[in-house]
Amino acid sequence: MHILSTNLGTARPNPALRPEFTGHHKQPVDQLVVFDPGPRGGEHASGVVGDYIGDLEHHGGDMKAVYAVGREELDAWSERLGSPLANGWMGENLTTAGVDLPSAVVGSRWEVGTALLQVSLARIPCRTFQAVAGREGWIKEFTLAGGAGTYLRVLRGGTIRPGDELRLVHVPEHGVTARELFRARTLEPGLAGHVLRAAGDLDEHNIEILRSRAG
């Protein structure tokens, strides 16, 4: 399990028009410096130095500091869409190889480079993502397929480079995966009660959403 590509987004016109600019179009760079950006809406947005986030209401903050997607997931989507997808196409900061990220347990911790990262939240698709994909019905298609990758918290800041190994150092006993969190937040509210077993590794916003879905 290792990092295949480190990717950074700069401000570009948003094809969805609002917000005006987006950092979704991420390009490979030699390294990333990651840090805890604090709560969403604070002084910083992304947990990656130099990474641009346009939608500060829904993106960024400590629970969405870094986004990771597996190269295997990109390859599967490439086949599905009939077009090759470059590293960073999903808007991910980290493109990994050899790890099934959606199956990662929420709250799991990975050492990578000099940083310590923690699996935090599922990525919920937005209209900017659909506009970038340029595919009608993309949000529904992405959701039905179960999403891709996972967001990560930064527990210890550091530098990450392509080729760095992902070293799993902790897995919570609750066993709730990023994929189950995604499904509970989207099409399968019946999973919400199960996913709430991971409440100790979730933020209050998502706990409230899951409790409302659990009834």
TrEMBL record:
Organism from which the protein derives: Luteococcus peritonei
Pfam family, one: MOSC
InterPro entries membership: Benzoxazolinone_Detox_Enz (IPR052353), MoCF_Sase_C (IPR005302), Pyrv_Knase-like_insert_dom_sf (IPR011037)
PANTHER family: PROTEIN YIIM
Domain MOSC: 27-169
Gene3D superfamilies (alphabetical): PK beta-barrel domain-like (2.40.33.20)
Residue segments, region Disordered: 1-23
Protein name: MOSC domain-containing protein
Species classification: Bacteria, Bacillati, Actinomycetota, Actinomycetes, Propionibacteriales
Coiled coil: none
Superkingdom of origin organism: Bacteria
Transmembrane segments: none
